[in-house]
Amino acid sequence: MVSQWTPGAVAALRQKENLPFVRADASGDIVETNPRFDEVYGWQPGALIGQSLAAILPASFREFHHAGFARFQLTESSKVVNHPLTLATVCSDGTELQSEHYIVAEKYPDGSWSFAATLRPLEGPHASSGAAAP
Fold first, then answer.
1. How confident is the model at residue 36 (pLDDT cuts 50, 70, 90)?
2. How many domains does the chain have?
């Protein structure tokens, strides 16, 4: 499934204007958020860096995410990348906000992986319409 992994996909997603953006490493630890992500979901800048993606996942979804991430580590195949998904995102105050996630994966020359997503809030004061896809 090499065709799923587009060189430059993370950089292209990062450039989407005014959309919350989060990036994680191959271990599932958050390595980057943008100011829009922090604003929409109420996190302090840098507060999530080094934390597991579980910090922004609803408790009811964490086991499914962990299983999917583990499966990806074994197969390097995914059914959730490169198309919009409606999922809940946990805000800093513990509330959950429905958002459209558009996730990409990118494999670097050293063999490491990076995962990134734009999140388009579907409810609340920052809600927007339209697809989050690049």
1. very high
2. 1
